Amino acid sequence: MSVTFWVVVPAAGVGSRMQADRPKQYLALAGRTVMEQTLQVFLDHPGLKGLTVSLAAEDPYWPGLSCSHDPRIWRADGGRERADSVLNALALLRAKGAEALDWVLVHDAARPNLAASDLQHLLASLADDPLGGLLAVPARDTLKRAGEDGRVEATVDRSVIWHALTPQMFRLGTLHDALAGALEAGATVTDEASAIEWAGGHPRLVEGRADNLKITRPEDLHWLAQRWQS
Ligand SMILES: Nc1ccn([C@@H]2O[C@H](COP(=O)(O)OP(=O)(O)OP(=O)(O)O)[C@@H](O)[C@H]2O)c(=O)n1
Ligand SMILES: C[C@](O)(CO)[C@H](O)COP(=O)(O)O
């Protein structure tokens, strides 16, 4: 039987690095918005129990999307940082009946190119894992550490370096407590795994596809749009 799971999609960012006329999750990509493309792979999966999107307080775009009426999707309040947005969504899932031991997958609204095969690979790889983990890709290029003068200080051993992607998959209770604790302590938490690490855990790295790209700058969206056209 396939594993069942809840999904949290933090989508309350403003997309400042994108410099567009609206948050990047609402820009067009292959005939729909980035957000709709991102959600589809989860809505198509038979293991989905429910999905929460965290949205900015003033978000005029979400109500216009067809998926905003989907009964499997709930809306939570976005927070100041991505981690706050995720924490709010987890609290809402608990209120909707999710249990502490249930799996939760957290996935950026700005990653519309998650392959169904990668989602399945993550679920299958972690279903029996005691902690959980994340999709990630090994570093490909030679890595340099920069000095303050902008010159190379050293070449870093890339064999132990991975890029963290999403989804990141953990038990709801574990993730909630780790995020709440890390935020309370003022720790830097850019992804769910950082919070688990802060709490002393070692999330499993599951190799995923490098084209599960986070749209961050305009060229990322152009690259994806061209790829989806061909
Ligand atoms: N307070 C925040 C900040 C970010 N996010 C979400 O977290 C994901 C990854 O963040 P990032 O790429 O940094 O998005 P933005 O914060 O929108 O971009 P920028 O940093 O360029 O402003 C995005 O889906 C974004 O909407 C969120 O839900 N709440
Ligand atoms: C969670 C994340 O997508 C992992 O790569 C990423 O850290 C979030 O975006 P940011 O650019 O770090 O804000």
TrEMBL record:
Q: Which reaction does it catalyse?
A: 2-C-methyl-D-erythritol 4-phosphate + CTP + H(+) = 4-CDP-2-C-methyl-D-erythritol + diphosphate
State which pathway it belongs to.
Answer: Isoprenoid biosynthesis; isopentenyl diphosphate biosynthesis via DXP pathway; isopentenyl diphosphate from 1-deoxy-D-xylulose 5-phosphate: step 2/6
Q: List keywords of the entry alphabetically.
A: Isoprene biosynthesis, Nucleotidyltransferase, Transferase
Protein name listed in UniProt: 2-C-methyl-D-erythritol 4-phosphate cytidylyltransferase
Site (Positions MEP for the nucleophilic attack): give the residues. Answer: 158, 214
Gene (name only): ispD
**What Gene3D superfamilies does this protein's entry cite?**
Spore Coat Polysaccharide Biosynthesis Protein SpsA, Chain A
One of the Pfam families matching this protein, by short name: IspD
Per the UniProt entry, the Enzyme Commission number(s) are: 2.7.7.60
Q: Which family does it belong to?
A: Belongs to the IspD/TarI cytidylyltransferase family. IspD subfamily.
